[in-house]
Amino acid sequence: MMRKRFYNAIFASGIGFILTCMMVGISLNTEGTTLKVEGASAAQWTWIGIGISLVFLSQLFAGQVDAFLGAVPKPQLSKLLPEEGKRAMLKPWLLAALLVVMLVWPFMVSRGSVDLATLTLIYIMLGLGLNIVVGLAGLLDLGFVAFYAVGAYTYALLSQYFGMSFWACLPLSAGLAALFGFLLGFPVLRLRGDYLAIVTLGFGEIIRILLNNWTSVTGGPSGISGIAKPSLFGLEFTRRAKEEGATTFHEFFGIDYSSSYKVIFLYLIAVILVCFVIYVINRLMRMPIGRAWEALREDEIACRSLGLNRTMIKLSAFTIGASTAGFAGAFFSARQGFISPESFIFIESAIILAIVVLGGMGSQVGVILAAIVMTILPELAREFSEYRMLLFGLLMVVMMRWRPEGLVPMKRPHLELKT
Amino acid sequence: MLRIDNVNTHYGPIQALHDVSVEVKQGEIVTLIGANGAGKTTLMMTICGDPQATSGTITFDGEQISGIPTNKIMQKGLAIVPEGRRVFGGMTVEENLSMGGYFRDKAEAAETIEHVLELFPRLRERYSQRAGTMSGGEQQMLAIGRAMMSKPRMILLDEPSLGLAPIIIQQIFDIIQKLRDEGVTIFLVEQNANQALRIADRGYVLEHGHVVLEGSGADLLVNEDVQKAYLGG
């Protein structure tokens, strides 16, 4: 037993050593026109040494470490919350308070934090959309970003070529993304698990490559810029009205111009969109179709034996998930004012998927929390931005060991069927 | 009520059923017995349309159901309790039952739930428990209850005694008889030939995809070949 562990420890530290030597131990520097390979400094070597011996020791004493970690009490969230009856009573008040805070909060903080909050809200929308597909219906979709891209480009193109407004394009973007979801779903949904994942991964790349190469329409890698910002009943948030005769927001209300109005306005739109998405998805989950998604995830054969049409059920999950992404996409391009295929790479899909898994598959509250964590943490840890993916990986490993069911595991809405 | 006429079924190039003809009349319990791999489950699945029969016809209540998709067949007043129970493990008893009544309106479904709970008092005790945490017998009761939720005129049962203790098997068979008394026609596929033939009005013996024997339950029970092959006599 001890011997096996010793070999294990040697092996693990050996691999760790090779990997760190390649990543940290050697650095390439350009000096003028030549490329110079440099070794690590003495201090770095000490750190590498410490790291490797840590790996060695932790592997050698894995049993003891596990026992120790097992003894650490896990946080019991359920005990922190008031009991069921009280919670049901408090819930509407808490929700109302939360909404008020969300509406008032942007007027009191810096522009940067409002902007970050808006980004978080976009990820919440995306997470909620993918949650239907992966969390509820159990279809692993690795190309979710494709629908996000479709939504974003729909608005960008319609606005650029036809001068259509954000509000008119919002449902169109969602609709077009849904159509893409539907079209992709038809041939793909007879596939299962790994195969489905690969095909959706491919689809995500196809959309990105298409946007990259269809230069005449999408502008290719240089993207589309100058996308119109949303307006408030025709009031623009610019310093001067773009068109002759149009009024701007600050002129209309007779206040001084400030660029932060626009940021706050975008944030408020995002809040409304997120509330809308949460409401719709909540309703869907309570409807029989929501139950059918879960039943399909649990047992496909049993579902078919009850006369459910699996293709339609899967397709509906896929389409509704896609339309949510389209929604988020349209808003994203309006907020950004500039989009390019660079914004829709695979890593985005991975982050959205991570949000769903981290939050707890199928749980809306969990997904929202995870989206907040996943967007705010990288901002807080700005100085570690080089190690972002490393921290990301570490977070995943820790989560899967500590709380594999996610931050807030799903609790199904209870449907009463009593006489 | 259910008429299977010269049905052949293939899995790719392999033929699983050869010219099988079976008839189930209204209000009967008909059992199909046979060894492992005889094609019992294949026949069940063929009735449900997956796989589709390569030739021959299946009619239910005078309407041809061979050649139409599974989900349409299952909405015609036919229900199946699939082999191995296949309850939704993560869902509660209540949710499992309401999935069974997916295509019915809420009030009607609630009525049937009440009926199912009367038939299976154990399910009432476990009403908000997850199905996956229940015993095999309780899961089988739930699977039957779920099939009853669509108010079918006929129920197909695929090996309901699989992996259950003798006393539970007895309970399940009692329930099957009760269902028949309520007017539901039963088509029962079983390996447990002894018990199945005891409650059956008629029976068929399937061997290598052929129907080799048919007769009343009592006749088959005393038939020498059946006794030798399935009853250990």
Shape of chain B: globular
Characterize the main sheet of chain B. 6 strands, mixed
Structural class of chain A: mainly alpha
Helix share of residues of chain A?
Answer: 55-70%
- Class computed from helices, strands and strand pairing of chain B: alpha/beta
Taken together, the total number of domains of chain B comes to 2
Identify the CATH class of the largest domain in chain B: Alpha Beta
Oligomer: heterodimer
Keywords (chain B): Amino-acid transport, ATP-binding, Nucleotide-binding, Transport
Family (chain B): Belongs to the ABC transporter superfamily.
InterPro entries (chain B): AAA+_ATPase (IPR003593), ABC_branched_ATPase_LivF/BraG (IPR030660), ABC_transporter-like_ATP-bd (IPR003439), ABC_transporter-like_CS (IPR017871), BCAA_Transport_ATP-bd_LivF (IPR052156), P-loop_NTPase (IPR027417)
Domain ABC transporter (chain B): 2-233
